[in-house]
Structures are given as structure tokens and as C-alpha cells.
Write a structure and sequence with these properties.
Blueprint (H helix, E strand, L loop, with lengths): L2 H13 L5 H11 L4 H13 L1 H11 L9 H16 L4 H10 L10 H20 L4 H4 L4 H10 L4 H8 L6 E4 L6 H10 L4 E3 L6 E4 L16 E3 L2 H4 L1 H5 L6 E5 L5 H8 L6 E6 L4 H11 L4 E4 L14 E7 L14 H4 L2 H18 L3 E11 L8 H10 L3 E4 L7 E2 L4 E3 L9 E8 L7
Parallel strand pairs: 5-6, 5-8, 6-7, 8-9
Antiparallel strand pairs: 1-3, 1-4, 2-3, 9-13, 10-13, 11-12, 12-13
Length: about 425
């Protein structure tokens, strides 16, 4: 299977078939005999820049390719990506794309492929300039582009640019095993370049991403892969030894490990998620050699899993649109609809209402999402506080991003790390009458 054909199959499964990028890649990676890194680059990059590349292709075709021949459409999208972003020579892109047509049963399309690609090579600047729609030029679906513009008009261009960049690989050093400085020495001895993360004392970003099996100390729990925005959760929770902590919606367990590593002693940690997701939590804990009570349950049905003991800290990392992590999951561009955001907001409100009674008086609840949309963030907290009278909003520092009405927001392209929202809420203690 050629690089171009495998990449086209992945893109078709994502864009037309609605599959996640991870799932769409699996069968191609298993059967591919070439450079798997190049295949992943083509798949992720083609998905990331699909709207832009599709806009280019529409300028090069006199009529759209018929639905039954859509694989040819995605072969051309992949070829344009290789030309624009992978720096593959023009002749190699054209020749390789034409050569794979036989294997795709599209041999009749050789003339079309030649004509389209050579036309683009000759007239690239004119074709790109002719794209009139701002959202296409930015490589974003119109509905997401407009929503970002409505919520963050002063930062639209920076958010879009940040979301279109390849993500870095950031690590969290397990402070129970070693300090960040000690792990930095380990990397330096191996000639692995890195930059310490400013806002997290346990984070560092590698100069060049590595597969996890090549990251020193990953297998035995010395480090975990975790974006710096997520690492800030530990500081926001103000953790200390002996606390009882609930990690709601805990899978895949990154923040579960973060909480346990953040204290020198023991915490009573309960990690809850749906049955199909808890295996990942257990795997992470096993690698890190840490213990927690992992509960397979619907978080909102507290009667089925809660033992009645109040929690000192609650982390609610709520399901969301993922709009803050599009750089890591570019398939979100193709799958996320405005109706999804409304649905997520309803679920987020329900989850927050469900866990609030579980919080001890004086305890702290931290609501976080990897979304940049106000409907999933400030508006959820606004609805919550309008229904409650036993809360006190807690301030968070500038390292958590820009202040919003109820919390803090980090934005891709504006702040380091992924887009992330934090709202800290303390439950007020009841005062007895004199």
C-alpha cells in the first residue's frame, strides 16, 4: 500500500465516514509497509488542513468529483498536503499519486490527477489568493470559525493559528520519584533537547516529539505525557496529605496520576468513569505504581457508587467539545456540531449538580474543560451559581490564563499549552445560629 493511498483511505474514513482519526488510522498502520511516521504525518496533517486544501481543490476542478469516486478526491487532498506541508518535491508528489491509482482502481484518473496537480504547481499563489472565504483560508469549518469569533473576537486569528500548529510533546515528571532537575539531567545525558515549562514545576517540553517507548523512564512511571495546561490542575486543587479526593470523569487517568503525585503522603482518591473507559485509568496507575479506588459508573448516578463519605476536593474534568485541543485532535473539526456543544453544556450542568452534594463544607470543587467556548465554561458556572447559595468562587493566578467572569481561560495560540478552562468553587460552611 502506498503512502498516498493509505493516507487517502484514512482521510475518507474521517471526513466522510465519521470515524475518529485514531480509529481510522489503525487498519492502515497495521498493513502499511513504509514509513509509519510519514503516514501519520499525512493523516493528521491532511485532517488538520482539510478545509483549506479542499478550498484549493475546488478552485482546480471544473466540477466536483462524483460521490462514488471520492477516494480520488482524497488522493488529491493528500497530494496537495504533501506538496504544501511535507516539502516533497513536485515531481515526486505527482508521480507517486498517479502510480497509486491502479491499486485504488482509479487508473482512468491519471490525466485528471496530472492536470490538477500541475496546474496548482504552476499557479499556486493565484489559486490560494482566490480563496475568498476567511474560514476556508483559516482551515476551519464555518460554524466553528464563527463561534470562536463570537466568543473571542480579539483573539480569533491567534486561536486559529495555534489550533492549526502541530502540538508539542510535554512531559510531567513524577515528583514522587525524582525532581524535574534530576530528570532534565537524564535527558541531557542522552542528548535529548527540552525546554522547562514555565507555569508547571513538573513539566518540560521535548524539542522533538518521541514515541512513548523511546521516552526515558516512561515505562517505569518516571514521567507521563501531559500538556502543561492540564498539569496546572494540581496547583488549583490546593492538595494536601490526608484529603479525600474525587476525580470525576477520570479516564484515561492522566489527572488521577497528577493528583497522587502532587502530595508527599497519602490521599484517599476515588476515580470515576464509565465502564468502557476505566481500563485506561488502571493501566496508568499500574505504570505509575500508584493506588486509587477506580469506580466503573455513571458519575451522575451517585447513589450507585458513592459511599456517603464527603470529599475535601472534587475535580470535575467534564466531557466537552474538545475545542481547546484541536491541534492534537484535528478530526474534531470534522465531527463537532453546534448541537454537540449544547448537548455537552447540559451534561456539564448535570454533572456539576450531581457532585456538589458530595463536597464537604469548606471543600473545593474544580471545574475544568479543554474547551474554549463560553457555553461550556462560564455559562455553565453562571447557571450553577444561580441555582446555589452555598458557594464562594475562588480566584486563580495569571498562570491559569485570562480572567473571565467566573474563572480563567487559556487559549491555544495565545497561551502556552492547550486551550483550557478552570473555575474554582468552595462550598461555604454552615454557621450555627447563636
Amino acid at each position: 500500500m502506498s503512502l498516498s493511498l493509505s493516507g487517502a483511505r484514512v482521510l475518507q474514513r474521517v471526513v466522510d465516514g465519521g470515524q475518529s482519526l485514531e480509529r481510522a488510522l489503525e487498519p492502515e498502520v497495521e498493513s502499511f509497509r513504509g514509513n509509519v511516521s510519514a503516514l501519520k504525518e499525512l493523516a493528521f496533517g491532511g485532517c488538520r488542513h482539510y478545509v483549506f486544501l479542499d478550498g484549493i481543490l475546488s478552485k482546480l476542478l471544473s466540477v466536483p468529483i462524483r460521490r462514488k469516486q471520492r477516494l480520488l478526491h482524497f488522493l488529491l487532498i493528500g497530494a496537495l498536503y504533501q506538496k504544501e506541508f511535507m516539502r516533497i518535491p513536485d515531481y515526486a508528489v505527482v508521480n507517486e499519486t498517479v502510480a497509486c491509482l491502479d491499486g485504488a482502481r482509479l487508473a482512468w484518473g491519471g490525466k485528471l490527477v496530472n492536470g490538477v496537480l500541475r496546474n496548482f504547481i504552476r499557479n499556486r499563489e493565484h489559486v490560494i489568493r482566490s480563496i475568498g472565504s476567511a474560514h476556508i483560508a483559516a482551515g476551519f469549518p464555518k460554524h466553528l470559525y464563527e463561534l470562536i469569533g463570537n466568543d473571542w473576537p480579539d483573539y480569533l486569528d491567534r486561536i486559529v493559528a495555534g489550533s492549526n500548529r502541530k502540538p508539542p510533546l510535554t512531559l510531567r515528571v513524577n515528583r514522587r520519584i525524582q525532581s524535574r532537575a534530576e530528570y532534565e539531567s537524564c535527558l541531557a545525558q542522552r542528548g535529548i533537547g527540552f525546554v522547562p515549562v514555565v507555569d508547571s514545576l513538573t513539566g518540560l517540553t521535548l524539542d522533538s516529539p518521541l514515541p512513548v517507548n523511546e521516552i526515558p523512564g516512561f515505562a517505569d512511571g518516571q514521567v507521563s505525557v501531559q500538556d502543561e495546561s492540564a498539569q496546572l490542575v494540581a496547583a488549583a486543587l490546593a492538595l494536601s496529605d490526608g484529603q479525600r479526593v474525587l476525580d470525576g470523569c477520570a479516564a484515561p487517568g492522566g489527572k488521577t496520576g497528577l493528583i497522587l503525585e502532587a502530595v508527599s503522603g497519602a490521599v484517599d482518591l476515588v476515580a470515576v468513569d464509565l465502564p468502557q473507559r476505566v481500563a485506561a485509568i488502571r493501566e496508568n496507575l499500574e505504570r505509575l505504581k500508584l493506588d486509587a479506588r477506580v469506580v466503573s459508573a455513571d458519575l451522575t448516578r451517585t447513589g450507585s457508587w458513592w459511599d456517603g463519605g464527603p470529599f475535601d476536593r472534587i475535580l470535575l474534568d467534564a466531557p466537552c467539545s474538545g475545542s481547546g485541543v484541536i491541534r492534537r485532535r484535528p478530526d474534531i473539526k470534522h465531527h463537532r456540531r453546534l448541537s454537540d456543544i449544547e448537548r455537552f453544556a447540559g451534561l456539564q450542568c448535570a454533572m456539576l449538580d450531581s457532585v456538589w452534594p458530595l463536597l464537604a463544607p469548606g471543600g473545593l470543587a474544580l471545574y475544568v474543560t479543554c474547551s474554549i467556548f463560553r457555553a461550556e465554561n462560564d455559562q455553565v458556572i453562571e447557571k450553577f451559581v444561580n441555582r446555589k447559595d452555598d458557594y464562594e468562587l475562588q480566584s486563580l493566578g495569571e498562570e491559569f490564563g485570562m480572567a473571565t467572569r467566573f474563572g480563567r481561560q487559556r487559549l491555544p495560540g495565545v497561551h502556552a499549552g492547550d486551550g483550557f478552562y478552570y473555575a474554582s468553587i468552595r462550598k461555604q460552611r454552615k454557621h450555627s445560629k447563636a
